[in-house]
Write a structure and sequence with these properties.
Chain lengths: ~575, ~190
């Protein structure tokens, strides 16, 4: 049977058909749906972990105990999981272990566009890269076979365009895969120097063997047609090559690490002019050139962003696309939703003249116009230690004008260690945890602080105030961000004292409450003085139309934030005169 | 047959993803090879979004090229202009007469042109429909997306496909009837 599937859904189907027992992840665009789809299979145990390192370690444990296991994350998540990654390469596996990593060329939803193929190279782990949803499913099955045959974890690299494109997939019945026997073996699973030195030899031999076999893998496919011009490519760019050059010779690499050296040498000896089409870094190109083969790559094509059929036409066929100049239109950046509890925080911080180190989540949107409420955003959890660093560099008086802003899920992911650092090293920073009871930006996943598992079961709910107190924070207060006086007082008081503090601003993401009846506010035009204060909230529901301020009643959810902002009492609740 | 490309654009939250899901499912059941590319994540929070649908005998790229769309269906007026360079020179535009002000226009920093529809019509073959009004007539503002889908289907001459069945199979039971009516209403608008 054929079905249309997102690349991510196809990966999940591949896990199911491979007899996977345990699946772990931390959500991150564009990888999130993989584990959400896997969770729908009753046969598979699936969980969100607090972060990618924990997720991978759970999957490693499960693999060593004999079960086929899969772990998914976005590219920057692999940075967090890099520690176990490099050493599980040494231990190898028992039940197959497949790690899915989704890169984001073009940064649709990320803070950088690093290329995960470097991890495969430096950790000496085989990596596959599919080019459509069918391959996404098939390559997962192939990855488990390779993992168990060569005793190695296997990485699969996706990109946003693959993860979030749909194409037809032929499904089949799941394989019956029994648990493998577990045998205690410290020489394989306890990586101390004495054992690891010996395992490193195993790793090198394994990768040499796979390199030799790779030229025969069906994953790597050389098709010869026009011998004047040829392409070496992988993943989604393969589709662009086929679109623009249907008659060219193409070597499509399904395995992007290690490279099939003899197959590539053979291809390049038959085809006169060979282009390397790879998004992001020149990883194929540099290796192939190091073998003394002349190919064309990044001299012509960029290391930035997504490729496209247009780009190949322009750069390789020298086609003038002859398009009219694009319109200059007002941009449409993403915004905090109407009724979002984060808006209130940034409005108050602005009013009080506070700076803020920021973090990763919906609340990062508070950095842009008109709120402009954040000074920094680097990586998950960075807000807290960065503020501590500022304090240690410039002193407590200076940081009385600063807070750290972090969401609930991000705090659990890697904010708590920063908080411990502040307490341990006698810092005085004020940390604001914006607890909206969900992992918002990635599409509302549960996390330890919501008390619900990925499978939708109730579990012990992480008590954030208690957690903060237990690491040594004496001053922990929970405020409702919509009670702006309370919020303002809390910020003013906590930033003025000589000890560390945590303010938990607790209000659920307004998108969670799908059943509430809209309660629209309106603006009394008689009272409105057109001062523009309400526009400073950056609420998508408030606008100036034909010279007067109005509230869009299809967007307003009645959070009443604007009522508190208006100095002339011109904004009123629906039904109130 | 040559691969056809349908570009659905709008603002995050307008339901382009559901419309393109129904569209691609119908195309698949009609026996076409289909690929669709959509945007999730950050842009979904009120940003500019697109769903790109391509179908034919064998489809390679899931992404529509500049100058490659047979039809551009815009759920919001200004987005039609933003994506216009993706339309083929002889391509058609279906545009919803519906305005969502982006933040720079809300805050008064930039101007939202009042002449978008005239500009579009002067450049390309443009069908203007008021799916918002039509949706309110049906009693649910949210079915705007399926009304626009109906118009798209009619414009692309895909009415032979059993769309009612596609809706029954893919929409929550309580919303099947209204979506069927919405689809039909959309077909009649063009």
């Amino acid at each position: 049977m054929k079905r249309l599937m997102l690349g991510n859904e196809a990966v999940a189907r591949g896990a199911y058909e491979s007899g996977v027992k345990v699946s772990t992840a931390y959500p991150g665009t564009p990888s999130t749906e993989i584990t959400e789809f896997i969770a729908k299979y009753e046969e598979i145990y699936a969980q969100w972990s607090p972060n990618e390192k924990v997720a991978l370690e759970v999957a490693i444990g499960s693999s060593i105990s004999g079960a086929r296991s899969i772990c998914a994350m976005k590219h920057v998540g692999l940075n967090v999981a890099a520690d176990p990654l490099f050493t599980v390469s040494y231990t190898g596996v028992n039940g197959g272990l497949v790690i899915i990593v989704a890169d984001d060329p073009g940064m649709h939803s990320s803070q950088n566009e690093q290329d995960s193929r470097y991890y495969a190279r430096s950790a000496h782990i085989p990596m596959l890269e599919p080019s459509d949803s069918q391959e996404a499913k098939d390559f997962v099955k192939e990855a488990f076979n390779i993992s168990e045959k060569y005793d190695t974890p296997v990485l699969i690299r996706l990109t946003t365009r693959l993860s979030h494109s749909q194409s037809l997939v032929k499904t089949s019945q799941p394989d019956e895969v029994a648990l493998k026997e577990y045998n205690k073996d410290a020489t394989k699973y306890v990586m101390m120097p004495g054992m690891a030195i010996k395992r490193h030899v195993v790793v090198e031999n394994r990768m040499n063997q796979i390199t030799e076999d790779a030229s025969k893998f069906v994953l790597n496919d050389a098709s010869y047609d026009d011998l004047e011009v040829g392409f070496i490519t992988s993943g989604i760019p393969y589709q662009y090559v086929k679109e623009v050059f249907p008659n060219a010779s193409v070597l499509k690499l399904g395995m992007v690490n290690p490279l099939p050296k003899s197959l590539i040498q053979d291809f390049c000896s038959k085809v006169k002019k060979v282009y390397i089409i790879e998004e992001l870094e020149p990883i194929f190109e540099e290796q192939i050139k190091s073998w003394g083969i002349e190919v064309i790559g990044k001299d012509l094509l960029t290391v930035q962003g997504e490729y496209s059929a247009n780009l190949l036409k322009e750069k390789i066929k020298n086609e003038d696309l002859n398009l009219a100049a694009a319109e200059t239109l007002p941009g449409r950046p993403p915004v905090l939703c109407a009724g979002c509890p984060h808006r209130s925080i940034y409005y108050r911080l602005n009013k009080l003249g506070k700076h803020a180190t920021g973090d990763i989540g919906c609340y990062t949107l508070g950095a842009i116009e008109p709120l402009k409420g954040l000074d920094t955003c680097i990586d998950m959890g960075a807000s807290i230690p960065m503020l501590h660093g500022i304090e240690k560099a410039r002193g407590r008086e200076y940081t009385k004008d600063w807070v750290a802003i972090i969401g609930d899920s991000t705090f659990v992911h890697s904010g708590i260690t920063g908080l411990i650092d502040i307490v341990y090293n006698k810092g005085c920073s004020t940390v604001m945890i914006l607890d909206n009871s969900t992992t918002g930006m990635t599409g509302h996943q549960d996390n330890p602080a919501t008390g619900v598992t990925l499978k939708g079961e109730k579990t012990k709910q992480l008590d954030l105030p208690l957690l903060c107190k237990s690491v040594g924070i004496n001053r922990v207060r929970v405020v409702d961000p919509f009670k702006y006086k309370d919020l303002e007082n809390a910020i003013t008081e906590e930033t003025s004292i000589e000890e560390p503090s945590v303010i938990i601003a607790k209000a659920p993401c307004q998108l969670l409450d799908k059943h509430s009846v809209p309660k629209q506010n309106y603006i009394d035009v008689e009272k409105c003085k057109d001062c523009g204060m309400c526009l400073k909230l950056g609420c998508p529901a408030i606008k100036k139309s034909h010279g007067i301020m109005v509230i869009d009643d299809t967007l307003c959810v009645g959070c009443n934030l604007c009522i508190g902002v208006c100095k002339f009492q011109a904004i009123k609740k629906a039904g109130v005169q | 047959m040559e691969t056809k490309s349908i570009l659905l654009v709008g603002v995050g939250g307008q339901g382009t993803i559901l419309a393109s899901k129904l569209l691609t499912t119908g195309l698949m059941e009609a026996g076409y090879d289909v690929k669709m590319s959509e945007i999730h994540g950050m842009s979904q929070r009120g940003g500019s979004v697109s769903s790109q649908v391509r179908y034919g005998k064998q489809v390679q790229s899931p992404v529509i090229e500049l100058g490659g769309a047979d039809i551009l269906v815009s759920f919001e007026k200004m987005e039609a202009l933003r994506w216009l360079e993706y339309l083929k020179p002889q391509g058609k535009v279906v545009v919803n007469d519906f305005k969502i002000l982006p933040m720079p226009a809300l805050s008064g920093k930039e101007e939202y042109s009042e002449k978008i529809l005239e500009e579009l019509s002067s450049k390309v073959e443009t069908k203007i429909i008021d799916a918002g009004k039509e949706a309110l007539k049906l009693g649910n503002a949210k079915v705007m997306n399926v009304i626009l889908l109906g118009s798209t289907i009619k414009m692309m001459e895909l009415t032979d496909i059993d769309w009612n069945k596609i809706i029954e199979d893919n929409v929550k039971p309580g919303f099947v009837d209204i979506n069927k009516t919405a689809l039909e209403a959309g077909m009649k608008l063009v």
